[in-house]
Amino acid sequence: xxxxxxxxxxxxxxxxxxxxxxxLMAPLEExxxxxxxxxxxxxxxxxxxxxxxxxxxxxxxxYFAEHLTEALGGARVYLKREDLCHTGAHxxxxxxxQALLAKMMGKNRLIAETGAGQHGVATATAASYLxxxxxxxxxxxxxxxxxxxxxxxxLLGAKVTAVDNGSKTLKDAINEAIxxxxxxVEETYxxxxxxxxxxxxxxxxxxxxxxxxxxxxxxxxxKEGRLPDLLIACVGGGSNAMGLFYPFLKDESVKMVGxxxxxxxxxxxxxxxxFAGGTVGILQGTKSYLLQDEDGQVLETHSVSAGLDYAxxxxxxxxxxxxxxxxxxxxxxxxxxxxxxILGRQEGIIPAxxxxxxxxxxxxxxxxxxxxxIIIVNLxxxxxxxxxxxxxxxxxxx
Length: 398
Ligand SMILES: Cc1ncc(COP(=O)(O)O)c(C=O)c1O
Hints:
By secondary structure, the protein is of the alpha/beta class.
């Protein structure tokens, strides 16, 4: 297994790469060169470090969920509290890092696409903080599910552009954002929200998010004097999972599970579980697992959680799946809704519906583990944004 991937062309084994129109080759190269340069730049590093602590609120706590652990009667469950980051999710780590890179590159306009709205809010926040213009593309179906985040972006001064094509979700928003980037590449920086897209985005976002795993590793060693047995994170594009997992990849005793959206069940066809129901293909600049039909047409996806509702997945995940280093499973909408309610009642924490998928898996496996085993669940975001949506599902009028 090669921990130094991707190679210089952005491949993780069979996956990844740069499948883009000619017009985007030069901007991607410019981005890669700037990323390599500023990563070593002490001025960039010191501003970023300060933003992480004073603005985002890092390091986030590693919280021992005592009541949940007691209720489950098995492994000790810890939560990495990315929900406590400014703006409510891990997305801000990456968005602010890329926005700072854009500013250093002399770009004055950020564009982004967003599913759950968290990445859009994070990008709008970073733009406002750094004095940059911002436009966010969002599918109209996601705008309906996440209307609170649409309003937040507007309050932060971003322009939110509705995308009413296709499934009206993230895939369609990405197409529009790429179109914008091609047209306005001189002054515009495209902030990719996850470990996806053409090289160098997957490696760049993974590195910006690996702050999560670096902190968790240090924190668990301090609290328990040893490494955890199991890490669990939800997988939309895969950035919070890769961020937590990456710093533990060489620790062979640490198992890792990525949890995809099982929607209404794999048999129903209404899900977004790429590893359970997908095949290898190319979408939006990268080669990865994809939900597609026999003719290569991208299939409609479904999840109760907008942030996991995407037809493809970050290419690095495919590599570690093939190497059997990371396991992938899924949680259904019902599993996630149960976990959403359980955490509120047991610990006084309302998790994002995305994170509830990871929790659902912990709830499933912890009871069969020994009491001295340790699980870390990445609580990627808080559930405030989902409260209206869940109330609607439960038939409660607010
Ligand atoms: C709170 C939260 N968790 C997880 C995700 C999924 O993204 P990723 O798989 O890149 O971490 C999202 C996406 O919007 C999110 O808002």
